[in-house]
Specification:
Layout (H helix, E strand, L loop, with lengths): L6 E5 L3 E6 L15 H10 L11 E2 L8 E7 L2 H12 L4 E8 L7 E11 L4 E5 L7 E9 L25 E7 L6 H8 L25 E9 L6 E5 L8
Parallel strand pairs: 4-10
Antiparallel strand pairs: 1-2, 2-4, 3-4, 5-9, 5-10, 6-7, 6-8, 8-9, 10-11
Length: about 240
Amino acid sequence: MDHTSLKILYEDPQIIVCVKPAGIPTQTKKIGLPDMVSLLKNHLAGQSPSGQPPYLALIHRLDQPVAGILVFARTPAAAKALNQQLTSHQFGKYYRALVFGRPPREEDTLEDYLVKDSRNNTSRICTKDTPGAKSARLHYTIVKKGQGFFNLGRGIFENTTSPTELPAELDIHLDTGRHHQIRVQLAAMGCPIVGDFKYGPGSPDPAARLPLMLCAYRLEFLHPTTKRRLTFRLPPEDFAL
């Protein structure tokens, strides 16, 4: 996936749907670091005959190492409608993750409470009564062989892992959108995401690290004006190793 150019999946006067490459933040305050908000505003500025800064509202986020689909609002009314859908869990957010280990069940729902530690930008599983605790829920299914996004054909794992210990690929429906939610819940289950050196096994050599094997490959929501259900899906080849 090209980090230097925008991949627009859909655009109209109300919304813009695009692909965020891995490694680029959704939004950042760091000077000189490109993010999706600034890239899209530059894109929209070229369409404005008045020369006025374009309106662009951030609706949801993806972690910097995560690639996938994002939708932004181009008007305040669209932003309000999309945010209402998001808070009422009407968005369909689907991910693929490659994990170490095999989950105890072929399909399951994980329900936990998470609390964020802003000092080190991490989250952890906690009790319901922990100050700042928020409920977190996701549903996963183990992907059948031949239907995965992440191609293991380059022998990255085959030479170091027995066939029964090869990473499993999960299809994940995210019901809530907590900080680092998928990464924390899968790691707590004993199946950290491949390439997640914050919550999974560390790597002493940064040059040997794999990218985070997590992508937001499918997004569903109602168009804020027409109310038509929109579904955007990325092909597996966009995320192959």
